[in-house]
TrEMBL record:
Domain annotation Transcription regulator PadR N-terminal: ranges: 15-86
Pfam family for this entry, one: PadR
UniProt protein name: PadR family transcriptional regulator
Length: 113
């Protein structure tokens, strides 16, 4: 399995976490921030990001604000109240998953105690 498949499965959680930390962001800004935070290890394509944003918006987790920047419309995404609650839940699930994966990949024997 390629790491991109692993990333794709967690893209919604990544987007929601970024919006928690940054209040509101536009699509390109999200892609650049992920690349910056991961030192280029995680690259989100527009083809993956925008369907995720639209899905989160359709679920009522995101709202959109359109502002003109340099005389062009720019869509800013931000969390709804339901989005904030869902983010907490998804982050807890992700942390538990990571802990379980760590246990599976690094099992401790009775001698390690």
């Amino acid at each position: 399995m390629q790491k991109n498949q692993l990333y794709k499965g967690s893209l919604s959680t990544v987007v929601l976490k970024l919006l928690t930390d940054n209040e509101k962001m536009y699509g390109y800004q999200i892609t650049r921030e992920v690349e910056k935070i991961t030192a280029g290890e995680m690259v989100i394509t527009e083809g993956a990001l925008y369907p995720t944003l639209h899905k989160l918006e359709a679920k009522g987790l995101l709202s959109v604000e359109i502002k003109k920047v340099n005389n062009r419309p720019r869509k800013y995404y931000f969390l709804t109240e339901n989005g904030k609650k869902e983010t907490v839940s998804l982050l807890n699930e992700m942390k538990a998953f990571i802990q379980n994966m760590d246990v599976l990949l690094n099992p401790k024997t009775s001698f390690d105690v």
